[in-house]
Amino acid sequence: MERYSSTRKYFESQQSDEEVILVVRKHPLSVLPAFLLSGLGYIIGLVMLFVFPFAFPVLVSGFVYNVYILVVSIIFILNTAILFRSWVLHYLHVAILTDSHFVEISQSGMFSRKISQMTLDKIQDVSSNQKGMTDT
To answer: Residue range 120-126: average pLDDT?
Structure first.
Protein backbone atom coordinates (compact mmCIF):
# COMPACT_ATOMS: atom_id res chain seq x y z
CA MET A 1 0.00 0.00 0.00
CA GLU A 2 1.27 3.44 -0.93
CA ARG A 3 2.31 5.68 1.95
CA TYR A 4 1.31 9.34 1.85
CA SER A 5 3.44 12.16 3.19
CA SER A 6 2.58 13.16 6.75
CA THR A 7 3.98 16.66 6.24
CA ARG A 8 2.04 17.52 3.07
CA LYS A 9 -1.37 19.16 3.43
CA TYR A 10 -3.81 17.60 0.95
CA PHE A 11 -6.68 19.95 1.87
CA GLU A 12 -7.01 23.20 3.78
CA SER A 13 -8.64 21.96 6.98
CA GLN A 14 -6.33 18.97 7.40
CA GLN A 15 -4.94 18.74 10.93
CA SER A 16 -1.22 18.26 11.49
CA ASP A 17 -1.74 14.88 13.23
CA GLU A 18 -4.20 13.59 10.61
CA GLU A 19 -2.89 10.67 8.55
CA VAL A 20 -3.90 10.40 4.89
CA ILE A 21 -4.96 6.84 4.15
CA LEU A 22 -6.09 7.04 0.53
CA VAL A 23 -6.13 9.55 -2.33
CA VAL A 24 -8.37 8.55 -5.24
CA ARG A 25 -8.71 10.09 -8.67
CA LYS A 26 -10.87 9.14 -11.62
CA HIS A 27 -9.46 6.51 -13.94
CA PRO A 28 -7.24 7.94 -16.71
CA LEU A 29 -9.60 6.49 -19.32
CA SER A 30 -12.19 9.06 -18.24
CA VAL A 31 -10.33 11.65 -20.32
CA LEU A 32 -10.17 9.37 -23.36
CA PRO A 33 -13.10 11.03 -25.24
CA ALA A 34 -11.45 14.46 -24.97
CA PHE A 35 -8.09 13.01 -26.06
CA LEU A 36 -9.70 11.30 -29.06
CA LEU A 37 -11.55 14.47 -30.05
CA SER A 38 -8.36 16.48 -29.72
CA GLY A 39 -6.39 13.87 -31.66
CA LEU A 40 -8.91 14.09 -34.48
CA GLY A 41 -8.57 17.88 -34.42
CA TYR A 42 -4.77 17.62 -34.63
CA ILE A 43 -5.04 15.23 -37.58
CA ILE A 44 -7.41 17.63 -39.35
CA GLY A 45 -4.99 20.48 -38.66
CA LEU A 46 -2.03 18.50 -40.03
CA VAL A 47 -3.97 17.53 -43.15
CA MET A 48 -4.92 21.17 -43.65
CA LEU A 49 -1.31 22.22 -43.15
CA PHE A 50 0.41 19.67 -45.40
CA VAL A 51 -2.18 18.33 -47.88
CA PHE A 52 -4.49 21.23 -48.71
CA PRO A 53 -1.77 23.51 -50.18
CA PHE A 54 -0.99 20.86 -52.82
CA ALA A 55 -4.65 20.18 -53.57
CA PHE A 56 -5.61 23.87 -53.63
CA PRO A 57 -2.62 25.99 -54.78
CA VAL A 58 -4.62 29.19 -54.30
CA LEU A 59 -4.16 28.73 -50.53
CA VAL A 60 -0.43 29.49 -50.67
CA SER A 61 -0.56 32.96 -52.18
CA GLY A 62 -1.38 36.43 -50.95
CA PHE A 63 -3.92 37.36 -48.29
CA VAL A 64 -5.67 33.99 -48.53
CA TYR A 65 -2.49 32.33 -47.21
CA ASN A 66 -2.53 34.54 -44.09
CA VAL A 67 -6.16 33.69 -43.36
CA TYR A 68 -5.46 30.01 -44.03
CA ILE A 69 -2.53 29.93 -41.58
CA LEU A 70 -4.67 31.78 -39.01
CA VAL A 71 -7.43 29.15 -39.27
CA VAL A 72 -4.96 26.26 -38.95
CA SER A 73 -3.32 27.96 -35.94
CA ILE A 74 -6.70 28.41 -34.25
CA ILE A 75 -7.43 24.71 -34.77
CA PHE A 76 -4.16 23.75 -33.05
CA ILE A 77 -4.70 26.24 -30.19
CA LEU A 78 -8.27 25.01 -29.55
CA ASN A 79 -7.14 21.38 -29.53
CA THR A 80 -4.39 22.19 -27.05
CA ALA A 81 -6.87 24.07 -24.85
CA ILE A 82 -9.26 21.07 -24.91
CA LEU A 83 -6.45 18.73 -23.86
CA PHE A 84 -5.25 21.05 -21.12
CA ARG A 85 -8.75 21.61 -19.70
CA SER A 86 -9.52 17.88 -19.72
CA TRP A 87 -6.30 17.01 -17.94
CA VAL A 88 -6.73 19.77 -15.31
CA LEU A 89 -10.32 18.75 -14.54
CA HIS A 90 -9.25 15.10 -14.32
CA TYR A 91 -6.25 15.76 -12.08
CA LEU A 92 -7.91 18.20 -9.69
CA HIS A 93 -11.03 16.08 -9.07
CA VAL A 94 -9.95 14.00 -6.08
CA ALA A 95 -11.31 12.12 -3.05
CA ILE A 96 -9.18 11.95 0.09
CA LEU A 97 -9.67 9.59 3.01
CA THR A 98 -7.85 10.32 6.26
CA ASP A 99 -8.07 8.66 9.65
CA SER A 100 -10.78 11.17 10.68
CA HIS A 101 -12.18 12.82 7.51
CA PHE A 102 -13.47 12.08 4.05
CA VAL A 103 -12.94 14.97 1.62
CA GLU A 104 -14.09 15.20 -2.00
CA ILE A 105 -12.75 18.01 -4.15
CA SER A 106 -14.91 18.35 -7.27
CA GLN A 107 -13.36 20.46 -10.01
CA SER A 108 -16.25 21.15 -12.40
CA GLY A 109 -14.61 23.92 -14.44
CA MET A 110 -11.32 25.74 -14.71
CA PHE A 111 -12.43 28.24 -12.06
CA SER A 112 -15.14 26.25 -10.30
CA ARG A 113 -14.37 23.95 -7.38
CA LYS A 114 -16.56 22.39 -4.72
CA ILE A 115 -15.05 20.90 -1.57
CA SER A 116 -17.17 18.52 0.50
CA GLN A 117 -15.88 17.08 3.74
CA MET A 118 -17.28 14.93 6.48
CA THR A 119 -15.89 13.43 9.64
CA LEU A 120 -15.90 9.64 9.64
CA ASP A 121 -17.90 9.40 12.87
CA LYS A 122 -20.87 11.16 11.20
CA ILE A 123 -21.12 8.71 8.27
CA GLN A 124 -24.11 6.42 8.80
CA ASP A 125 -24.76 4.90 5.38
CA VAL A 126 -22.75 4.45 2.22
CA SER A 127 -24.22 3.39 -1.10
CA SER A 128 -22.89 3.10 -4.62
CA ASN A 129 -24.52 2.90 -8.02
CA GLN A 130 -22.82 1.81 -11.23
CA LYS A 131 -24.59 1.67 -14.57
CA GLY A 132 -23.06 0.60 -17.83
CA MET A 133 -19.77 -0.84 -18.91
CA THR A 134 -17.74 2.38 -18.69
CA ASP A 135 -18.71 3.02 -15.05
CA THR A 136 -17.85 -0.57 -14.15
So the answer is: 76
